[in-house]
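Figure S7 source data.
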Amino acid sequence: MPTPESPRVLLPEADLSSPLFVGIDLGGTNIKAALLDDAGRMIAFHTEPTEVARGPEDAAARMGQSVARLAAAVGLTAADITAVGLGTPGPQDLASGMMLRPGNFPGWDHFPVRDRVASHCGHPVAYANDATAAAFGEFWVGSGSAASSLVLLTLGTGIGAGIIIDDLTITGAHSHGAECGHMIVDPSPQARHCPCGQPGHLEAYCSATALKKRAAERLAIGGTGSLADAVAAGEPLTPILIGREAAAGDPLAHELIMELADWLAIGIVTLMHTIDPAVVLLGGAMTFGRDDSPVGRGFLAQIDAAVRRRTFPTLARDTVIGFATLGGDAGSIGAAGLGRLAWKHRTGAAS
Ligand SMILES: [Zn+2]
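Tokens for the predicted zinc ion complex:
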């Protein structure tokens, strides 16, 4: 078995007398673990392959040990850590701390991940959906840190979502709160099918998978231009390619992205009319270069305009729609933040 690399220390001058928190983000590819101080600054970071096939007990042991390894990287022990949080993909039962039937984790069904990680690190573990953890990261120290409430939509292979209102994570009575990717945006008989099996869900229109599918359909019926040429020349049809060709001025690529923005706007308006968040953030791999790229800015502007046409004047004026900023670290940062929050609730510490 290969020895995992040592954690990277990012803040060697950190004040280690601050309460310290470890957040763990379990993904299908990697386990990410971060050591943060009380202000949400990342002191050290560690990532290693999940190696799903080694099974959940093995991964739980490594996740638990990551607490001690991060502490050791700054000369401390696991006992010096104040609190620990963990985010995993759903579906899950949050009350019992269990992963139920996680899609990319064959053989992990009904694994009590929260308590197994807790037994390996010696701390109680605050347990959340990974998308909720990412939303909490943005709420704590990311682009929602000035807001009282936010929704994060993570656009990737699927759509993840998290809702935070005044330090409360919306988890639901059955651990299915904030399943915003499965909001119905198209009730028509022609509606596209979501990977969950149901028709008309947001994810069936706005995920990377959905964008590739719509692009392939348009090319199959004779779509022309530089996107069509690139695919004909053998380039894989990906959101990155579509974004690149949109930036180069290809009308079809541009139209595909704007259509996606229009569908996303329908979902965002429903969220605004349900919970009225201060901020709606878009994160994930499929954000077309975000504010740094004309395509990303055009994508956001299209969403913004479509939302404002469909909502109340007050919400049109005051709701902020923007890009998330923490990227792939949002989940581990947010898990640490949720560990911190649970610790504050346990101890009555002031926030
Ligand atoms: Zn669905």
